[in-house]
Amino acid sequence: MAAAVQTTATTLEGQLFEVANRVQLAELSQPADARPNNVQVALDPEGGTVSITFSAPASFTIGAAGQLVATPVAYLP
Fold first, then answer.
1. CB of 72 within 8 A of CB of 58?
2. Is 23 exposed, middle or buried (0-12, 13-18, 19+ CB in 10 A)?
3. End-to-end CA distance of the chain
4. CA 50, 10, 3 angle in degrees (round to 5)?
5. pLDDT, tens digit, for every residue of 17-53?
6. Which of 1, 36, 39, 75 gives the lowest tally of CB atoms within 10 Å of its CB?
C-alpha cells in the first residue's frame, strides 16, 4: 500500500494537482515493461489551466440495497 501523501497546497484544487503529480511519479518509478499509465497531467500555460485524467482499476459488487458499489483496486506497490 502506498504511503499517505502530504500536500502543501491550501486549496482542494492545488492538493489534487499535487496528488496527481505524486501518482504520476509513482507510475514512472515502475519498470518500463510493466509501467502503468493511469494518470496524465497536461499543463496549458496560455489558458492558465491544468487537466488531470486518472483511471483506476476497480472491482464492482452489488450492495445490500441493490446499488452498484465500486471499490478501487491498488495497482502500484
1. yes
2. buried
3. 6
4. 85
5. 999 999 999 999 999 999 999 999 999 999 999 999 9
6. 1
Q: In angstroms, what CA-CA distances link 6 with 10, 19, 30, 59?
A: 12, 9, 21, 27
Distance CA 68, CA 15 (A): 28
Measured CA to CA, the distance from residue 14 to residue 8 in angstroms comes to 8
Place of cell 491498488: 74
What is the C-alpha to C-alpha distance for residues 66 and 50, in angstroms, rounded to an integer?
A: 37
Whose cell is 502503468? That residue is: 36
Using CA atoms, how far residue 1 sits from 4, 14, 26, 39, 64, in Å, is 9, 24, 12, 18, 28
The pTM of the full predicted model, rounded to 2 decimals, is: 0.79
- What is the number of other CB atoms lying within 10 angstroms of the CB of residue 19? 16
